[in-house]
Task: structure prediction
Amino acid sequence: MHHSEPSAFSIYKNQTSGVTFILVGFSKYPHLQVPLFLLFLTIYTVTVLGNLGMIATIRLSPKLHTPMYFFLSHLSFLDFCYSTVVTPKLLENLIVEDRRISFTGCVMQFFFVCIFVVTETFMLAVMAYDRFVAVCNPLLYTVAMSQKLCWSLVAASYSWGIISSFVFIYFMLTLVFCGTKFINNFVCEHDAIVAVACSDPYISQKVIFIIGTFNELSSLMIILTSYVFIVSTVMKMPTTGGRYKVFSTCASHLTTITIFHSILICLYCVPTTKSSWLLVKVASVFYTVIIPMLNPLIYSLRNKDVKDAVKKLMCSSLSSMKCIP
Result:
């Protein structure tokens, strides 16, 4: 009789019975549970209001219907999504004693975080390319960055995010998990999950390291190349006013990129040692909780068009009040 190889789904079905994970989170610091709960709740509230507010502002303001803000609305959507996948569970674990999460729940959380984080990595690269076209070919900008191209770039970013996640999950499900295991993080993050596997996680770790490094290098190459051309074009500008305008537009994007990529490199491109678990937790907090809050703040506080659009929308919604133009 011919025996077929067991599928990832059949392996998964066999595993889920009797496997429970307990998210250790910040339980080693009981005196910090309530302050952390209040801090993360405040951050999450600002994240949700900031990102949904940014999306609404861009959709409702005709002046912001440009490729740059089209990509920014997708960045806000991604920030809202991966913060929502992680933060509610984090908040729950800070106030309840029972920190269990099912095998399925843990795998699904990791899967969705991967999709949104990988997509954001390339969305930031797409935004760098958009700035390159705007600065280096301003006369051809509207033709070059057509609606079709914008949608294609966004679709490609999401598609690669989904493909990467499926690959990570496939290799993770080839591992054997057994019994009740403590996950040394507040989120189902790859290193923390494979660290409690009952079989050798070498291949799964290698796969995420290779794809993670590829994602980092390829997206950073696009960003660096774009900014090399932007800087060389700006330096040739005759007026300092023109230079300042370009740099102030790009500064928000560069700030976001620097924070986001430095944390991802720490997490996925540097091997984890047992002594660095606290660092992994802190890095996880930054990229899943704090960065999604920072992006709308960075873009709204540093961007005159967004501030003007928000003022206009507030004035029109509060039309009974007299508004100063």
In short: The beta strands are 20-23, 100-102, 180-183. The CA atoms of residues 55 and 73 lie 5 Å apart. The first strand starts at residue 20 and ends at 23.
